[in-house]
Amino acid sequence: MDLLHIRACEILGISRQELADKLGISVATINSWTSDPARISQTTKLALELMIENHELKMIIIKAKEAQEAITNFKE
């Protein structure tokens, strides 16, 4: 079972408490999702998905900048 909140914590490298702070909810609410994933609202699911997508896009940008820098350094 893919628990979105756990995956978000792993991908973002943050704790459940940090995720709770980012979402403006209690860590107890996040912990309750582990036993009952249906409790996650659609809005919260969307927020988690967007947080993951945003992180992935940031990583792509970082890699592109590193590649550009490597090419620039190679030309010199």
From TrEMBL:
GO terms for molecular function: DNA binding. It comes from Campylobacter concisus. Gene3D superfamilies: lambda repressor-like DNA-binding domains (1.10.260.40). Transmembrane segments: none annotated. Residues 7-44 form the HTH cro/C1-type domain. Keywords: Plasmid. This is HTH cro/C1-type domain-containing protein.
